[in-house]
Design brief:
Strand content: 25-35%
Distance between the termini: 46 Å
Number of strands: 9
Low-confidence stretches: 1-11
Largest sheet: 5 strands, mixed
CATH architecture of the largest domain: Roll
CATH class of the largest domain: Mainly Beta
Length: 184
């Protein structure tokens, strides 16, 4: 959209990203399949059930709840997409793009390449927070980007071709394109 003639700004068309990257965890599809199986089993029990049997009703509710939680919980973190714009780094998870994190580059103090981010160190897959590591979106084991934020915090994300992402971010920050690997 364009600016209104009287100077009142309307939403501007977003700029194209300078860099785009992605990471996928195919193992999450196995967990999503297990979620679908639990959901299907709960539906089969519900259709064939005698609703006067309380333990059976509890089993049906349990299967449905576990199935929904497994299905949506795993599909939300089956992949992550990272986009670097001229002024923002945007990170989105899953098919719906949620959770999403937008970090303005003027709030970033530095960027480092991490050769190996592991779910084990973060307490599992997903959107994580650890006092010693900061915040991270971890969808698989492997390379990633660690952003040093101006407030002293860090944000880590697993993404393919993380070295290029770090080079682009450091270039936008005017820090040069050489950066040591985190933990090196």
């Amino acid at each position: 959209m364009r600016d209104h003639p009287n100077g009142e700004g309307l939403a501007a068309k977003p700029a194209l990203p300078i860099w785009t990257g992605r990471a996928t965890n195919r193992a999450q599809w196995l967990l999503a399949t297990a979620g679908v199986a639990c959901l299907a089993f709960g539906i089969v029990l519900a259709v064939d059930a005698s609703w006067t049997n309380v333990p059976l009703v509890m089993s049906i509710v349990g299967c449905l709840a576990v199935g929904v939680l497994m299905l949506f919980g795993t599909l939300a973190f089956v992949h992550v997409a990272v986009k670097v714009y001229s002024d923002v780094v945007e990170v989105r998870c899953g098919h719906l793009g949620l959770p999403r994190r937008r970090i303005r580059l003027d709030h970033v103090a530095g960027a480092e390449f991490a050769p190996s981010l592991t779910p084990r160190h973060w307490g599992g897959w997903g959107y994580r927070w650890r006092p010693d590591l900061g915040v991270g979106m971890i969808v698989r084991e492997g390379e990633g980007v660690i952003l040093k934020l101006g407030d002293g915090g860090t944000f880590s994300v697993t993404v393919d071709d993380a070295q290029t992402a770090v080079r682009v971010i450091r270039g936008r920050l005017g820090l040069g394109t050489t950066g040591k690997a985190a933990g090196a």
